[in-house]
Amino acid sequence: MKKFRKVLDGLSSSSQGAVASPSCSNAAGTPPTPQDIHVQETLLSENFHICKTVRHGFPYQPTCLAFDPVQKILAIGSRTGGIRILGRPGVDCYSQHESGAAVLQLQFLINEGALVTACADDTLHLWNLRQRRPAILHSLKFNRERITFCHIPFQSKWLYVGTERGNTHIVNIESFVLSGYVIMWNKAIELATKAHPGPVVHLSDSPKDECKLLIGFESGTVVQWDLRAKKVDFRIYYDEAIHSVSWHHEGNQFMCSHSDGSLTMWNLRNTARPIQITYPHGKILKEGRKESCKPILKVEYKTSRNSNEPYVIFSGGLSYDKAGGRRPTLTIMHGKAITVLEMDHPIVEFLVLCDTPYSNKIQDPYAVVLLLEKDFIMVDLTQSNFPIFENPYSMDIHESPVTCTAYFAECPPDIIPVLYSVGAKQKKTGYSHKEWPVSGGTWTLGSQTYPEVIVTGHADGTVKFWDASAITLQMLYKLKTSKVFENPNAGEGRAVEQVEEDPYAIQMVRWCPQSRLFCVVGISAHVILYHFSKHDANAEIVSLEVRLQFDSEDGISLSETDPCFSDPSSHSPQMPGSPSNGSQDSLHYRKVKSRPVRMPPGYQAELVMQLQWVDREPPQQITSLDINSAYGLLAFGSCNGLVVVDYIQKTILMCVSTLDLYGAADPYQRLTRSPRKNRQSTSGLTELSDNKVSMDMERSKSPTSDHVNGHCTSPTSQPCS
Q: Compositional bias of type Polar residues: which residue ranges (predicted)?
């Protein structure tokens, strides 16, 4: 901005200097021309560049999730190397790894303002979050081994890194270098065992002793390693592959999830065999064999003060034979109660949020965070029916695919509070009454902010108003345009559904924030005008039908036919009430509700305009739209013509075809239509003069209130003679 001001100052001084300088004026003393003024440019193209300021919506291709229970912030990693950090509504930060490698795992240094990322290129990064824009402090590259799992104990300065070869490395967090302490896989397992245990899939410290490290291998082997003595305390062998391990807070037992859909409970007093084996969703069949189940990818074993029964929460494990097993699920077991929550998208990862960061204390879980492939959900564990929290982040921009967008800056200051107050009444029931648990971070709005609104139209006919003034995108109000139409019967709606899969999809929006008028264009060639009201209403919706069609036989040159003597059924569009196919065509588009409609506070439909079908063929889609609240006019058009509507009087003022607008100079080719039956002869029409000058003068005349191109603008007028 400073450089830009210098350019303006230079322009001002150069102009004044050029006028005062005699060299810049000619001999006659005339003032210099703009070409004589030379400005010294100090602002170069390198000073301008396009940059991303804010990312709205759900993270693309998420891969992992982390939570800081003290700072109350979330981190989401993606397959493209991005990191999304979320806190309270308004706290939203995005960072990107320069390598673009997928983020495999995230680990917070709890309450220290730091984050460790493990990427697919086998590199560890330490991020500093104690600044406005997170940045990488240190990086550590593994050249010979692939990283599979990481773990940072609470208030520890050591990072444990498991690899695909089965080895475990220890990294010093402060210097972010390898300590040289390596737990080799062949030392962790028995010497008599020749088979490789597989990659490291789990690392955790014992709640009783932080110097005891529990290592889980993919093959089913679990080892507890004494870091001080550098030896194995015990080994556990199981036939099924292990996916995850979770400790009891007392440190005397832990639970494992396996690939056959089973959960095993192990006690440290006797590690020869599990004390309990359960198949939560598997049954014993009549033949005596077990029902095959999906793998349990992750399990969390948490205790609560309010109940003697622990919470066992896991993903997967449903039977292959059940119809419900096709959908991803999260199972919550509390005592004898088993609750299965079905998800719309595959589960990427989930975390159980607890009151304490200490692993050796009673956990008291209060929520479950689920990261899905295309959604982000949080479940309230404190209520028996397990309701979900209402997500304050703009994760559902593409709840229905976005078909159009519009951006409005410097809106009236009262427009956002008004839309929010009306939209708050639209909130769905069934959500948890508690506040959103992720409440970390701080965000303050600058003094130079001004109201910004983004409007999105969607394929299902909905329109959403978003507050884009801050760094987050907050939905203010949702409008359903399909409510102005009748629900099609079994036979009537087939024609529309065959033409368009989404007959209510929004193509275009126009909004006047000052007058609060709103207009939308649908893909079925309809225009809906809305006005804003803070009170509910019960009123009828006015509907206007417009015939705006062009046929191949209508393509007669203006040099041959005078529009003032043309047949009313010729190439110019027909007004409402003009001869048309009537009910034969009206079956092909959506019918507007003819009865009084109850409309809640907010935007209420006032006028609907529909283009008619002609000879069972759909009209061309509307390509342009504009509204003028000062004059009470609305105009829209397609490749076939233009329509101007007085929305106050609910009357069409002008309906003119493209041929009448362009004449013989029409630069576009129209789509031909099949000829209609029983057409009237045009041989008796009077010819126009071939004089080009007279045509240009006639074409330059402004339309009067009596006629426009030979067609009456008033429904009560008679055709021009």
A: 567-586, 702-721
